[in-house]
Amino acid sequence: RAKRLAVQDRLPWPPRDHVVIKALLGQRLSIPEFTDLDDVSVMHCFKVWASADDAVLASLCRGLLYRRLYKTIDLSHLCESDALAAVVRAQDAVQKAGGDPAYEVLYDEPSDAAFESDPGDESSNRSADVLILSDAGNLTPFREISPMSQALNRQLMFRRLHVVPERAEMVRDLIQTELPAAAGPAPGDNPQGERRNRP
Description:
3-stranded antiparallel β-sheet, 10 helices, disordered C terminus
C-alpha cells in the first residue's frame, strides 16, 4: 500500500529524497543507503504510518505493530469452485460493510511436493531422481530403495482465506451459512489436503 501511495505521490512521509521512498519506488540505492535501511528504519515507518490519513495504510501498520493480524479461514475442505465462490462472497460482504476487499480479504492456495518422481518414467533422463551411491559405486534412484519417496511424492495443497480481524467473524458466518458445510474434496484431493502428482 505504501508503494502505491508513493508512486501516486500521496505518501506524506518520508520526503521524496528519503531512502525509504527510493526503496519503495525500486530505485538504485547506494551501499550506505542500503545498509542504513534496517529493521529499525522499517519499524519507524510503521509507527509513523499507523496514524496516516490513508485508512488502509494506517490499519495495516497498526495490525503489524499491535499483532492484530489477519485471521485464517480454512477452505481446504471445499472443492475449487466452492472455494472461489466463498472468496467472491467474502469480498462482496466486506465491500458492503464499508471495507476494502483488495486489502481486507486475501485468498491463498499454496501447494508443493517435497520430492517429485514418476515411477512410470523409464527414460534415462530423469532429472528429478535423487541418486544414492552405494559402497560398490553403483547409483540407484532413491525411490527404488526407500518407501519414503512415495510419501514425499505427494503435493500438499491448502486453500485459505485471510481476513482482517474485525471482519473475520462476519465472513466465517457467511461462508458457513451460504456454502455446503459437507462439501467434498476436489478431484484428486484427499481430506488431508494432499494431492498426488500426476504424470
